[in-house]
Amino acid sequence: MTQTATIGFISLGCPKATVDSERILTRLRAEGYRIRPTYEDADLVIVNTCGFIEDAVDESLEAIGEALAANGQVIVTGCLGARAQVVREAHPEVLAVTGPDALEEVMAAVHAQLPAPHDPFMSLVPPQGIRLTPRHYAYLKISEGCNHRCSFCIIPSLRGDLASRPIGEVLGEAERLVEAGVRELLVISQDTSAYGLDLRYRLDFWRGRPLKTDTAALARALGSLPAWVRLHYVYPYPHVDALIPLMAEGLILPYLDMPLQHASAPVLRAMRRPAAAEKVLDRLARWREQCPQLVLRSTFIVGFPGESESDFEQLLDFLRAARLDRVGCFPYSPVAGAAANALPDPVPEGLRKERVARFMTLQAEISRAKLAERIGQRLTVLVDEVREAEVIARSYADAPEIDGQVILPGAWELDPGDFIAVEITGSGEHDLWASPVEGL
Ligand code: SF4
User: Fold this and answer.
1) Range with lowest mean pLDDT among 23-32, 249-258, 353-362
2) What are the pLDDT digits (tens) for 74-116?
3) Which residue, 262, 371, 373, 404, has most beta carbons within 10 Å?
4) Residues having CB within 6 Å of any atom of ligand 1
5) Among the atoms of ligand 1, which is closest to the Cα of residue 147?
6) How far is the CA of 421 from the centre of ligand 1 (A)?
């Protein structure tokens, strides 16, 4: 055993898994454990896994195998942990396996193996907790689980039905993050528009004020903090209309990440998702009228079982009409345990890839044209990274890690987390180029 109980921690998966990792790390540090990002020099290793698609399962099993080979003492948590038999079949020697969002179970497994050291100096944890993102932005998880049952997805069976955090608790965490230097809060969940539904939108308190636990109240309250607020995973339900005025007022960023998945009614029905592409187009048009600077990001699945050429053409027509700013497109890939695996008429792999390529060619033209429209605009950007000969920043239109960047050529005396005014001077397919200007 090392002198101070030391834990190696490996975090895989999506932002929701990152938040789970941050909670576990925060508790470990609060109890006095030392943390290492490696397998060596640790008394045991925790691997937070992802189990969403088969590639992620393979990567997680590989990481567990490496940890076992290098260290021998391994606790597994996270989405793949919800399928404990898969983990145990591949690696019977792991110490414990828990599912996602299982802080107490992970801590119990750690305590059973390695008692907490009780060192008062090591126990000092910053009030905002331990984070895995850079200091100037942070993910804020507002709920866990999902009430939908999309046929391609196993999240509800991994993470259960929607369970929202009371609004006072979420706002308290947001305040602590901002006090610790966070300049951008990224609101995440499986379905941000459903926030509070399971709690019947019950009243909670923040700064002594009663607030309803719902998306609009949360967005308005977050908007009162001195940080950018960006909403992810918002579905185009009617009550989302209430968020657009908050964007037009500048309280939250005029940016919506809205996973639409498809535009053809039969495919959406087979996916078990609301099927109304025209209604989505009407809604987007209304939102853009109310808030012209609104930026929309979405993701789509191409080659879903039963998708005909005409379904796919409808999707391309939708893209042409919607002119979304940022788009991700994935070829359909079966996920073990998903209902969609039983659907007839699979699309051959070659055709899936070909459709993804056609989709991306069309969207690249749209993105390039939309970015070119920004040349000459003045925008506020948030600095992510300062290099020797350029600064990498983002505007309100770019979420970290998934969207583009605003690149400022040259050496500038700036720090990550600085907000500066720039003028856009050039554009490509994903990124913009800019020069600093006097404040906006
Ligand atoms: S894909 Fe569907 S079921 Fe899965 S988390 Fe999203 S909304 Fe819920």
Assistant:
1) 23-32
2) 999 998 888 888 899 999 999 999 988 888 889 888 888 888 7
3) 262
4) 146, 148-150, 153, 155-156, 190-191
5) 8
6) 38
